[in-house]
Amino acid sequence: MFYLRSISSPPSVYNLYNIPTPYDSKKKADAITFRNDVLLILSYRSESGEEIDSEVILYGLLASEFITYNETTPKIPTQFTTYISKLDSTGILQSFPSIKTKSLGSALVLHYVDSVRTSFPTLPIEVHVFARSQPSYLFQNSEKNPGKRVLSDDKLVKYWKKTLGCFGKKDDSQASDAKVESVSGYWLVPGETEVSLPKVAKVPVSGNVTWEYGIRATKGQDLRYSLPLFPDDPLGKALDLITGEVTMLNLVNMLRVVGDCSIGRTGIFSIRFHPLGFGKLLDSGRVVEVKDREFKDIMHAITVDGLYRNDKETAQTSFKVLVDFGRLSGVTPVEFNPNVYEQRLNPTPTLASKSESSIPKPNNIQSFVKRKPAAPNDNTDTSQKKRTKLDVNDKN
Q: Which of 96, 135, 346, 394 is deepest in the core (most CB within 10 A)?
């Protein structure tokens, strides 16, 4: 049986768009944004007869959430933005042969985004991801577990494009009342063009995301003040290095040399949802808000160096962390069924989709990005290690 525990840090004021906040005595802003961090822990309680007989942590997801309010209506939010900064596994999944689910990590991402959308049905929602392959992030030293498989740069970018491409709905039924939802998406691999990444550009998706190659930006506005800036984000670092006017061309080219993006291929993704419709905010119960000190204690418990080294030690440590998790935050685990996401992640091909796949499609040639030169010696700042990572124990 799978279980999910979700906690949130307390909200605090955050300058999401590099503009003056209402608390700046010299200037006045039109909106104010609050940030809170969310941690989701996916665990598994083993069945009788399996080698490991305790509940263990399989995956973790860390995201920063930003809720923006208009200053004229301070009690009514106008925008929800989330930045998935870390997705990691403990590498212990392979110890449970009874688990047949192929894509646990992707299922956790879909669950998180779906829960946000149903909790904030009246708001436009943006989801952002910066993907950079690393051995571990949330669970330090977990790469030493024999069952952990870390994706390469190319496979990581492909993984995120496929996972985020599961959102939206197509009208496959031809029914008059069929609901269609189109999601707009942007993706960029600094130093590359869409043409140079054909396998990523053509990755099959099950949803209805209209992808464009580039960075999402509001037309007619200064890029320096229209791009959301997240903690330790490469876009913010690139903007700081540009003097004078910021254009899309010099921003994209500057990203090629920013420490986070200069070594290996990285992916910058964003998707935007329109509001689901009218209704009340249902955020209560989605996550449990804990004190800031408790949130930091739990984060420390799962990221302490040296705790994840092999299956047995991981199992013992996982159980202790889960006990401390409940003791500190009082979070009651809820059952999680990853199978409900399986068809979205790995759809069964239909007759129509098979016939369509044989029709050649024209390439959308992008040429505004210069190809990345050979990588120089690694002088990368250690701050890049705090970036998004994806290790996936997915079996597909």
A: 394
Dihedral sign for Cα atoms in the order 109, 110, 112, 113:
positive
Q: Tell me the backbone φ, ψ of residue 125, rounded to 5 degrees.
A: -130, 130
Taking 3-state DSSP, the helix, strand and coil percentages for the chain, each rounded to the nearest 5, stand at 30, 25, 45
Q: Report the greatest alpha carbon distance in the chain.
A: 67
Strand, helix or coil for residue 333: coil
Task: Report DSSP letters for 335-347, one per residue.
Answer: EE-GGGGHHHHSP
Distance of alpha carbon 124 from alpha carbon 78, whole angstroms: 8
Nearest alpha carbon to residue 289 among 323, 328, 320: 328
The secondary structure element, H or E, covering residue 114 is: helix 104-119
Q: Which residues contact 324 (CB under 8 A, 6 or more apart)?
A: 297, 298, 301
pLDDT in tens, the chain (396 residues): 899 999 999 999 999 987 654 444 444 557 789 999 999 999 998 776 566 667 889 999 999 999 999 877 777 889 999 999 999 999 888 888 778 777 899 999 999 999 999 888 889 999 999 988 888 888 888 888 888 888 888 899 999 999 999 998 765 544 444 466 779 999 999 888 888 888 888 887 778 899 999 998 877 677 888 889 998 888 888 888 888 888 888 898 899 888 778 777 889 999 999 887 655 555 445 788 999 999 999 998 888 767 787 777 888 888 888 888 888 888 888 999 998 898 888 876 544 444 343 333 433 333 334 444 444 444 444 444 333 444 444 544
